[in-house]
Amino acid sequence: MNKQLISLLLMLILLMVPQISSAESQENTSIFQIKIISPEQITDYPGKDVNIKISVKNMTDKEIKDVFTYITMANISKTWTVNLEDYSADQPITIGTISPHEEKIVELPIKLVYSADYYLYTTVLSKDSLNITSSHAIPVKILGNTRLVPLQVQIVSIAVPLLLLIALALTFKQRRAASA
Amino acid sequence: MIYELVKKETKEHIFSRKGIGFLFIVSILLSIMSFGFISVKELSLLDQPSIVMTTFKLLLGINILISMVIGSTMVAGEKEKGTLESLLLTPLTKRKIIIGKLIAILVFWLTVTLISLPYFIVLSNGTSMLPTILFYLYVVGTVLVISFSSIALIFSTILASTKNAMIVGLMIFLITLVPMFLSTTMKKAGFAKLIQSYSPISASMKTMKDLFINKLGALDILVGMVPVFVFFVLALSVSLLISKKVDFLGGE
């Protein structure tokens, strides 16, 4: 009796497995393939403009309209996503229509700003589909080379306005003395 | 004689309460910004060339504005106070009067650069940027300040009131600033693209980046500076040509 029950349960499990994996594979089937062609990694100083060259391929047998792509960057040092407006990369690039199995090469510009370690990846989507595809990430290291001495900055920031304030007070005093 | 005029203008507009007040405001703004670079989390992540560039942008923006305010009051203010008559009675030609007023604005700018130098020295500490900073400050900065002051003087000469001269002059300055308020995409088309290509402010900002970050050669920098120099020659020439119009208000 026990053997029969175990066999029955095993059979049921075996029947369910292909269904689960088929559902999962359906969810993972992407209509696009997106790859970062270059660069493979970025290590540079702030202020530099970099172009991220990507390829977007339509993996379906149908034409896909209104396709656009954009950059996402995650700050690995601080574990947060980045507001790309500061990096002049907040606007997506419109690709338009991609024919079946056609591959398009696009360049996405980004300006390096704040020193930290990041992962950069690109995403492609179309208005016609809720299936969104992202590329693999590339490491981005924006180097910091600041040799500011906070004490020096503090001294100058206090001393200069203070001297001018004294000069201003003296002009007031002179004027008062002249009018008296 | 022109020396006397420069001395009078300098005393009246720069080494007066108003002038020292302006200098004090400039130093306060520079201090706030410098403090930000060492205390605000995001700003402290900037590298030194970007820090120097941000400080330059603030310094130039504020000083062009102040120089334009001073320039707008220089001729129209004399008309309003009724002191233009005595100035025109001196042996100075009208052109020399304008040159004298421009030299006074230049003295103001040079005073501002002296005040800003300690900030630039500490902000560029440990780098070899100081000679580049001095070049930008005294060449590009001076050319920009004189150009916009000339624009202010043109309107101060042709318009009867200081207020109107100031409004028109500042509007022209703001138009040249338009690309700074627009996104990267918007700058690529239409009117914004046109201003971006020919605005002396945009050209000076691009040159600043090429100089401090991209470290381009002298030829690229000079080519990038063409709109700045063209604007300088035009503004200065027109202000000297229009000096003939320096005259009393109607009815005087």
Q: How many E-type strands of chain B?
A: 0
Would you identify the CATH architecture of the largest domain in chain A?
Answer: Sandwich
Q: Please give the domain count of chain B.
A: 1
CATH class of the largest domain in chain A: Mainly Beta
Q: What is the CA-atom radius of gyration of chain A, in angstroms?
A: 30 Å
Verbal overview:
The complex is a heterodimer of chains A (180) and B (252). Chain A has helices spanning 2-28, 150-179, and strands at 32-38, 42-44, 49-58, 64-75, 80-81, 93-98, 103-111, 116-126, 133-134, 138-142. Chain A is elongated, with a radius of gyration of 30 Å. Chain A is built from 2 helices and 10 strands, in the order H-E-E-E-E-E-E-E-E-E-E-H. With 180 residues, chain A is an alpha+beta fold. Chain A folds into 2 domains: 1-29; 31-165, Immunoglobulins (Immunoglobulin-like, Sandwich). Chain A is 32% helix and 37% strand. In chain A, the strands form 2 sheets. In chain A, strands 2, 4, 5, 6, 8, 9 and 10 form a 7-stranded mixed beta sheet that branches. Chain B is mostly helical and 252 residues long. Chain B has one domain (2-245). Chain B is 79% helix and 0% strand. Chain B contains 11 helices and no strands. Chain B has helices spanning 2-13, 17-39, 48-81, 84-88, 94-123, 130-158, 162-181, 190-198, 200-212, 218-224, 226-241. Chain B is globular.
Brief descriptors of the model:
heterodimer, A: about 180 residues, alpha+beta, Immunoglobulin-like, 2 domains, seven-stranded mixed sheet, three-stranded antiparallel sheet, 2 helices, 10 strands, about 30% helix, elongated, B: about 250 residues, mainly alpha, 11 helices, about 80% helix, globular
Q: Helix and strand layout, with pairings?
A:
The complex is a heterodimer of chains A (180) and B (252).
Chain A (H helix, E strand, L loop, with lengths): L1 H27 L3 E7 L3 E3 L4 E10 L5 E12 L4 E2 L11 E6 L4 E9 L4 E11 L6 E2 L3 E5 L7 H30 L1
Parallel strand pairs in A: 2-10
Antiparallel strand pairs in A: 1-3, 3-7, 4-5, 4-6, 4-8, 8-9, 8-10
Chain B lengths: L1 H12 L3 H23 L8 H34 L2 H5 L5 H30 L6 H29 L3 H20 L8 H9 L1 H13 L5 H7 L1 H16 L11
Helix pairs in contact in B: 1-5, 2-3, 2-5, 3-5, 3-6, 3-7, 3-9, 5-6, 6-7, 6-9, 6-11, 7-8, 9-10, 9-11
